[in-house]
Amino acid sequence: MNLASHADFIVAAYGAAAAILGVLILWVMFDYRALRRTLAEFEDEGVTRRSDHTARSPL
């Protein structure tokens, strides 16, 4: 079986998949940083999480 005639398609498919994965990884990284910044702003304003409140109060 000769795959040389399909080499362009195979390389393009792998390239597109790598580019999409790279964009998704960058998106997650930027979103993580933005969420951490937002959480820090909330904590500076005195807003607490419900999970922190329930974890501190004994049943």
Task: List descriptors.
59 residues; 0% strand; 78% helix; single chain; mainly alpha
- Round the Cα radius of gyration to an integer and report it: 23 Å
Beta-strand residue percentage: under 5%
What is the helix content?
over 70%
Alpha-carbon distance between the two ends: 69 Å
> Quick one: how many beta strands?
0
Tell me the structural class.
mainly alpha
Chain-averaged pLDDT = 88
Compute the number of helices.
Answer: 2
What sort of overall outline do the alpha carbons produce when their principal axes are compared? rod-shaped
Order of helices and strands: HH
Spans where pLDDT lies below 50 across 5 or more residues: none
Biggest sheet layout: none
Layout of helices and strands, plus pairs?
Blueprint lengths: L6 H39 L4 H7 L3
